[in-house]
Design a protein that fits this description.
alpha+beta; about 50% helix; globular
């Protein structure tokens, strides 16, 4: 019940806005790594999928997922995309770690 009260206080709309800021920051910061996010009109605020650029010679998504896990960075592989679903507590430092790990891996 406490969790529902907190959600009511925060409101679903405000949670979505907060998470959208985080996902948009991640998308912006990873775009120069050859990762492609869905077009803005198809994005959800609470998660995103990043795909490798067409014709990329990089390892497959599952290989990238495994290499990231070795760096203690955990993302889900969903088909041909890395699924990123941040929580409200994700900080700029967390985003920095993600972007650095992706840059080192790719």
């Amino acid at each position: 019940i406490t969790a529902f009260k907190q959600l009511h206080t925060w409101t679903v709309s405000e949670i979505n806005i907060s998470l959208r800021r985080i996902t948009e920051t991640i998308i912006e910061r990873t775009s120069n790594l050859g990762l492609i996010a869905p077009a803005k009109e198809y994005r959800a605020g609470h998660l995103t999928g990043l795909r490798l650029a067409a014709g990329s010679s990089r390892d497959g998504i599952e290989d990238i997922q495994q290499k990231l896990a070795e760096k203690n960075v955990y993302l889900s592989a969903r088909g041909d995309a890395l699924r990123i679903a941040p929580h409200l507590h994700v900080s700029d430092t967390d985003i920095d770690r993600l972007v650095t790990a992706l840059a080192d891996t790719l």
